[in-house]
Amino acid sequence: MTQTHQPLRIDIISDVVCPWCIVGYSQLKQALDATGTAHEIHWHPFELNPEMPAEGQNLGEHIAEKYGSTREQSLENRERLAKLGAGLGFEFNFTDDMRMYNTFNTHQLIHWADTQNLGHELKQAMFAAYFTEQRDLSDIDVLADIASKVGLDATEAKAVLEDQRYAEDVRKLESFWVQQGIRGVPAIVFEGKHLVTGAQGTENYTSILKQLTGAGADA
Question: Which of 13, 38, 42, 121 is the most buried (most CB within 10 A)?
């Protein structure tokens, strides 16, 4: 008898300016594709720097202040990320004038996009806009343009951010995940109960998926 399985629920808590979030997701996607796992992904907001001013801060200066990294360490990490990204089909373009931004508006826009079943697409577009295209995520017009690229209405996207209609919803979601103990991202929750943190690598995600779905087990 053929056993039917519900799609695996995967909740991903992340920020669009978190390089390890897109690396972790890309590794997970490779594992999902390789195993043919039926799944549904739900993205959730997390702000790495909720106190960041709207105009942002030079990325190198920010990393040095927050983590105490030297310029050499930062460059080394950027090279490592660029190589990892290339192997996963994602392009990192780091430059010395790159900035870290406040991402509250990006999360509101993704939340709105979710109501139109385009949240996943907009999330991917945000990652690319920041890391590949170096676009200014503090600019509402830029965010509206990114939204238009995935099929959303740019005028409505701009209105969503101007009136902050989803601000309270996003704050509640952020608070919920912090209350669940999430302090860093990426944080991936499988089936609402199995938490995996950090970018674990395609092989590890493949192993996790097989354990959760029983793939490879005797029929």
Answer: 13
β-bridge mates for residue 197, sequence order: 187
Residue type for 193, please? Answer: K
List pLDDT tens digits, range 25-39.
999 999 999 999 999
Give the Cβ contact number of residue 215 at 10 Å.
13
Residues near 32 by beta carbon (within 8 Å), at least 6 away in sequence: 39, 205, 209
Helical ranges in 97-201 per DSSP H? 104-114, 119-127, 140-149, 154-163, 167-179
| Residue 193: burial class (beta carbons within 10 Å; 0-12, 13-18, 19+) | exposed
3-state secondary structure of 37: coil
Longest dimension (CA), the chain: 60
Sign of CA pseudo-dihedral 182, 107, 190, 124: negative
Q: Locate 120 and state its tokens.
A: 């996943």
Residues 160-167: contacts with CB under 8 Å, at least 24 apart: 160/108, 160/109, 160/112, 161/105, 161/108, 161/109, 164/108, 165/108, 165/112, 166/108, 166/111, 166/112, 167/104, 167/108
Map tokens 């995600």 to a residue: 205
State pLDDT tens for residues 83-113.
Answer: 999 999 999 999 999 999 999 999 999 999 9
Find out whether 30 and 202 touch, Cβ atoms under 8 Å: yes
